[in-house]
Amino acid sequence: MLTALQQANPAPASDRDTWVYLGEYDEQKHKFRNPPTFSATSPPSAGSTIVSTQDVYKRSVKPYKDDKGNWQLGAIKGVLPKGTSVTVLEAARIEGENQYDYNSWLKVQPEQ
Question: Can you give the three-state secondary structure of 39-103, one letter per residue?
Answer without folding.
Answer: CCCCCCCCCCEEEECCCEEEECCCCEECCCCCEECCCEEEEECCCCEEEEEEEEEEECCCCCEEE
